[in-house]
Specification:
Protein name: Protein LUTEIN DEFICIENT 5, chloroplastic
Cofactor: heme
Number of helices: 19
Bound molecules: protoporphyrin IX containing FE
Strand content: 5-15%
Family: Belongs to the cytochrome P450 family.
Keywords: Heme, Iron, Metal-binding, Monooxygenase, Oxidoreductase
Low-confidence stretches: none
Structural class: alpha+beta
GO molecular function: beta-carotene 3-hydroxylase activity; heme binding; iron ion binding; oxidoreductase activity, acting on paired donors, with incorporation or reduction of molecular oxygen
Oligomer: single chain
Length: about 525
């Protein structure tokens, strides 16, 4: 029997009253209960490698859907079991906060929607979600096409010269251009320009990534803050971004003031359909700091993730010409040479599945972060308050027990004419956009954006890895990056522009006409 049981037996022999016995023994019992969660052993240093979710996958195969990892005094629970994940994200989400994530992102997102918790989160989510209504997302479809068209112009040159192009950074610029227009009606035009503000956005993004992987939070040391050249640069970048945001907010306020406003559920200003315009027109009453935090959060959330999705989708396609051929065939048939509309999106079923499947194999971000703010039960295990938890979406999406042919890039694993996969209909084995009350608010926006960018590009070009490209390996910041870029060779498709396919009409054969005449 356990140590606490033995202790209880021996102490009771001494005649101690039961309430004192309980008091003495409870800590030992608690300790034993908590230590029931399997503890991962082995070379923990491996976790500090580039793509830290890969060693976590190995440990998952050994220790299962929940285990504990200790780093000196710090301890993390790694969760990869769909039922436990559903419990944390959805059924008992009130018992969890964003924990470490909020600490890491504070310098850039403040109390923006991703890191915020509690009342601030509740109020801001209620204010922001309505801005992404159907009419807005539909209006964005043309923006997605136009922005991707600018990228096509860049690729035209590369296709003519035969020079290899680094697609990851181009996708990053494409999605920055899109999200800038969508969130605050600002045209970064980063595919053609390299202005100070674009540089500033990248400085801040890189800093956020460094912080999420740095072992020691040097940025919290008071003197370091003032002398470190890196932090000086970060602070200057933040200042520029804040100033730009303040200017954009002021411009937008003026527009709203001049407008004859009739605010309603699907309100949208045709000249400026941005989320910022919606928020100001809705009379959203917040401090300018909170509004800036929210805009920054939307900018980063919508930028990095979509860029990573496109990068890994093109990598996967380069490894599987069969899927690419099928995709191009669908695009030719559905779109011909038209600019895609919302109705076309419903018919680009294979393209949607390509994105769904890319998000399964390369979830962005690969790990979700939580902290328990009260005691809870995870499966059979009791946990304490203040446990730091990593939900490995990577492990869920690549679990050999949850999926058939788990490593195969197979867009048709979900039937084309069925509903698209999501966390609910896949019972939390698939959660590209999270789940529960903190699920992504940009899921539809992002899905349309990805499908339009993908189809616009493969309609006009063939893509392959550049013959002398470095091997494509993974590293992590907030999302999965390549270690050395995605170098591709681009060619104009020989079949472009595509003529729409003429439908085959059943006609009576000459023989049957003659027969009928007789
Ligand atoms: C939250 C993924 C695009 C805004 C999330 C979460 C995931 C996610 C997994 C949940 C995080 C968690 O539970 O800890 C993605 C992916 C995208 C994408 C894969 C692109 C393919 C976007 C876009 C926007 C956006 C375009 C904005 C327009 C947000 C916000 C949250 C969020 C504000 C926090 C919601 C909350 O906590 O209430 N996203 N996202 N995302 N996403 Fe996205």
């Amino acid at each position: 029997s356990s140590f606490s049981m033995k202790l209880r037996i021996n102490l009771s022999k001494l005649g101690l009253p039961s309430n004192i016995l309980d008091f003495v023994i409870k800590p030992f019992e608690d300790y034993e209960k908590f230590s029931q969660i399997p503890e991962a052993k082995g070379d923990i240093a491996a976790i500090q490698s580039d793509a830290f979710f890969l060693p976590l996958y190995e440990l998952y195969l050994t220790y299962g859907g929940i285990f504990r990892l200790n780093f000196g005094p710090k301890s993390f629970l790694i969760v990869s079991d769909p039922a436990i994940v559903k419990h944390i994200l959805k059924d008992n989400s009130k018992a969890y906060s964003k924990g470490i994530l909020a600490e890491i992102l504070d310098f850039v997102m403040g109390k923006g929607l991703i890191p915020a918790d509690g009342e601030i989160w509740r109020v801001r989510r209620r204010a922001i979600v309505p801005s992404l209504h159907m009419k807005f997302v539909t209006a964005m479809i043309d923006l997605f096409s136009q922005a991707t068209d600018r990228l096509c112009k860049k690729l035209d040159t590369a296709a003519l010269t035969g020079e290899a192009v680094e697609m990851e950074s181009l996708f990053s610029r494409l999605t920055l251009d899109i999200i800038g227009k969508a969130v605050f009606n600002y045209d970064f035009d980063s595919l053609t320009n390299d202005t100070g503000i674009i540089e500033a956005v990248y400085v801040v993004l890189r800093e956020a990534e460094t912080r999420s992987t740095a072992p020691i939070p040097v940025w919290e040391i008071p003197i370091w803050k003032d002398v470190s050249p890196r932090l000086k640069k970060v602070n200057a970048a933040l200042k520029l971004i804040n100033k730009t945001l303040d200017d954009l907010i002021a411009i937008c306020k003026r527009l709203v003031d001049e407008e004859e406003l009739q605010f309603h559920e699907e309100y949208m200003n045709e000249q400026d359909p941005s989320i910022l315009h919606f928020l100001l027109a809705s009379g959203d009453d917040v401090s300018s700091k909170q509004l800036r935090d929210d805009l920054m959060t939307l900018l980063i959330a919508g930028h990095e993730t979509s860029a990573a999705v496109l990068t890994w989708t093109f990598y996967l396609l380069s490894q599987d010409p069969g899927v690419m051929a099928k995709l191009q065939n669908e695009v030719d048939t559905v779109l011909g040479d038209r600019i895609p509309t919302i109705d076309d999106l419903k018919n680009l079923k294979y393209a949607s599945r390509v994105i769904n499947e890319s998000l399964r194999l390369y979830p962005q971000p690969p790990v979700l972060i939580r902290r328990s703010i009260k005691e809870d039960m995870l499966g059979p295990y009791p946990i304490k308050k203040d446990e730091d938890i990593f939900i490995s979406v990577w492990n869920l999406h690549r679990s050999p027990t949850l999926w058939e042919d788990v490593d195969k890039f197979n867009p048709e694993r979900w039937p084309l004419d069925g509903p698209g996969p999501n966390e609910t209909n896949q019972n939390f084995r698939y959660l590209p956009f999270g789940g529960g009350p903190r699920k992504c608010i940009g899921d539809m926006f992002a899905s349309y954006e990805n499908v339009i960018a993908l189809t616009t590009l493969v309609r006009r070009f063939d893509f392959e890895l550049a013959p002398d490209a470095p091997p494509v390996k993974m590293t992590t910041g907030a999302t999965i990056h390549t270690t050395n870029g995605l170098m591709m060779r681009v060619r104009h498709r020989t079949t472009y522009p595509i003529k729409p396919t003429i439908p085959v009409v059943e006609t009576a054969s000459p023989a049957s006409i003659i027969e009928a005449a007789i």
